[in-house]
Amino acid sequence: MPNLTRREALIATGAASLGMMIPGAAGRVNSQTGLVQSVARWCFSDIPLEPFCSAVAEMGLTAMDLLTVDEWAVAHDHGLTVSCGDVGAGTIEDGLNEPRNHPTIVRAFEEYVPRAAREGVPNVICFFGNRRGMEDVDGIDNSIRCLQECAPIAEAEGVTILVEVLNSKAGGHVDYIGDHMTYALEVMRGVDSPRVRILYDIYHMQIMEGDIIRTLTDAREWIGHYHTGGVPGRAEIDGTQELHYPAIVRAIRDTGFSGFMAHEFIPRSGDPLGSLAQAVELCAAA
């Protein structure tokens, strides 16, 4: 065997392990297109980070989503890319739509986007914020102004700022203003930066508006990242829910997407890692 770094060895052995767990899966995890599967850390928070990173690498995945800055090194030590980093640029409730939040958001990106570039973190996240009675037009204008200030930071470092669309119905993020793609797309077009994109959460947008495949196809140039999740209940992406993920993955592939799709479902089975492995195989085989 040629000399490998620890990280390269972990990735190589992880792919082999997945092949043992699921026949034919090794080499299919991310090889079909530029689409790369990842996993959102918070959904598996009952598993300590170190062993979770080890299990994810052994499964053949090469990336993990929504890690805070102090967690990046742990993922990297296990050969994992941090596919989307949380740098504290506002919160779901206190986001881009409120001008009082703009200094905090800009400072976070000023401080951590250069670090993300140095450490190979391709994306960082922020949010549109809660409505609190605000009209869409004001939220859109305020978001554009903030992102126009942030975009040059991201462009200079080659890191992409992702803004997530979320559902605002009961059981979701009630009062979230960026709950439809029309809203998000107006912001994207207003900012018009190659380093500001939508994080398209399939679970959330199925609840709010459905029409997933047509929407992601039409909005292909503005989407920089995907999240999965079963509907209803944000459980496994299997035959118990209304979304058919093989068709969705094929549609994403057909757009020419070359970024990350992170699994963000909450396992209901007694075997959370088994559920994740099944989701990876389902999407790899699509």
Summary of the model, kept short:
With 286 residues, the chain is of the alpha/beta class. The chain has helices at residues 6-21, 49-58, 72-77, 102-118, 136-157, 181-191, 202-208, 212-218, 245-254, 272-284; strands at 36-39, 63-68, 81-86, 123-127, 160-164, 196-201, 223-228, 260-263. Helices cover 42% and strands 15% of the residues.
What does this structure look like?
The chain folds into 2 domains: 1-62 and 229-286, no CATH class; 87-226, Alpha-Beta Barrel (TIM Barrel). Helix 1 (6-21) crosses helix 2 and helix 4 packs parallel to helix 5 (136-157). The chain has helices at 6-21, 49-58, 72-77, 102-118, 136-157, 181-191, 202-208, 212-218, 245-254, 272-284, and strands spanning 36-39, 63-68, 81-86, 123-127, 160-164, 196-201, 223-228, 260-263. It is α/β, with parallel strands linked by helices and 286 residues long. The strands form 2 sheets. It has a 6-stranded parallel beta sheet. The protein has a two-stranded parallel ribbon with strand order 2-3. Strand 7, helix 9 (245-254) and strand 8 form a beta-alpha-beta unit. Helix content is 42%, strand content 15%. The chain contains 10 helices and 8 strands. The two termini are 32 Å apart.
